Amino acid sequence: MSCVSDCVFSVLYVIGETLGIPDTVMGLTLLAAGTSIPDTVASVMVAREGKADMAMSNIVGSNVFDMLCLGLPWFIKTVFVDTVNPVEVNSTGLVFISATLLLSIVFLFVAVHINGWKLDWKLGIVSLFCYVVFATLAILYELGIIGNNPVRLCAD
Prior knowledge:
Layout (H helix, E strand, L loop, with lengths): L2 H17 L3 H26 L3 H17 L2 H11 L12 H21 L6 H22 L14
InterPro entries: K/Na/Ca-exchanger (IPR004481), NaCa_Exmemb (IPR004837), NCX_ion-bd_dom_sf (IPR044880)
Family: Belongs to the Ca(2+):cation antiporter (CaCA) (TC 2.A.19) family. SLC24A subfamily.
Subcellular location: Membrane
């Protein structure tokens, strides 16, 4: 990671700790949005050039890559760094969020198919609405407002 990335993560950590916001909620909102902005800009640029297939590939590929690459740092830590202890994930909603992200990829393909394989404002509105619903439910789940999940803050 670059120095800028380290500073951003540190600042977000301090803000989250100061406001009493769990790390998972900070990751679901601010960090996720920040890492997705370059993908969004690239998708918009190629879609405006009439290359919707590239835009879709970027969107789906980015989500799949983000989800599946979680295994790499876990693998490295458990095989090379600390072979005795498993990696503890500080997220009560990991299964919920992962399943929802997987379903969002399926939904995106179905929605694009129903829309005649065209990316237009209607599909954009539907996708934005689904994202807001997902983010809201994920945050409420992580905060323990819905579900039976107590809020866990990171241990120092």
